[in-house]
């Protein structure tokens, strides 16, 4: 019989030695501010931006202070105004509605499906309804929550037809793709996080990509470029800034050289890390599916998803049973989160706990969240560890 798992669910993989070396170099010369450069020096932040632009295939990239900052910068770049309605998934993390509310706009939630993607039928109906309103939503902040990617062809068609601008929240899809095109490259702007629990780790940090020169110029000036935008490399040419340089308020949120220095070696290793997550996720997802005891969200065949966490919906669904499951798994060292609890805990807050925004009736999302169990898969677990975790999950699910 399987016994107990002893791994740590919040222990990250160590940073590569090359990141430690790069950090020491930056600390040694002390030029931590991104614009504090020697004549002719590129700087770690501008180099990271070039490398991330190349990684995603975007024309432009801006490194910023956090993933949440990147979302706000994108909303400001597309000129969302106070009072505007902004569509977003009901199932997402607090920084997403937070970024909308922080600029005085109003989050308007779209339902999610059992496969944890935005409900495109509901979106279509909402777009029709918004089109009929005097101040209808002009922007969708699409969150690829937990790395699940919806049918992006249909989503973009719906939004293009409704003239709704799409901003992608790719906090969980760095390294993921739709039809071979990097996640974050289908909407007008893509936003990523380099916070510790995401795919590359600088403690805090964010990245913003776009092909649109004017949007990116707004984001660069807005992030606090002090008219030093010519020191950016993955950014639009100087003439683009001429048109807007007096009009964009400075909301400082730059990335610093130390963080960029430790991210660059991790970005180089990200493709390997992604393969590692995909393999680990496959072990656990396969065992859960084979057990027939839970629904595991299905991946669209055109999506490449990076399973840095796993979600499942137990078929035995009463709240009491799910509480029992969490307790039994915790007693055996397996830490699950549940999105069905009334009170938000840690990262599991739900749309109805964001009370600064209107809480609409979302029966489909409620039914999904009521059963939704969630577990991190750190790369510090090997495949055997994942098999052990899967065995514990299946055994405890079978006891419900
Ligand atoms: C982590 C996260 C963000 C951004 O978070 P920061 O902590 O600000 O970097 C945005 N969206 C989702 C879904 C996230 O999980």
TrEMBL record:
Per its UniProt entry, which superkingdom is the organism in?
Bacteria
Residues of the signal sequence? none
Q: Name one GO molecular function term.
A: transaminase activity
Query: What's in the keyword line of the UniProt record?
Result: Aminotransferase, Pyridoxal phosphate, Transferase
Query: Which Pfam family is one of those matched by this entry?
Result: DegT_DnrJ_EryC1
Which InterPro entries does this UniProt record tie to the protein?
DegT/StrS_aminotransferase (IPR000653), PyrdxlP-dep_Trfase (IPR015424), PyrdxlP-dep_Trfase_major (IPR015421)
What processes does the entry annotate via GO biological process terms? polysaccharide biosynthetic process
Give the similarity note.
Belongs to the DegT/DnrJ/EryC1 family.
Q: What is the name of the protein in this document?
A: Aminotransferase
Q: Which organism is it from?
A: Pacificitalea manganoxidans
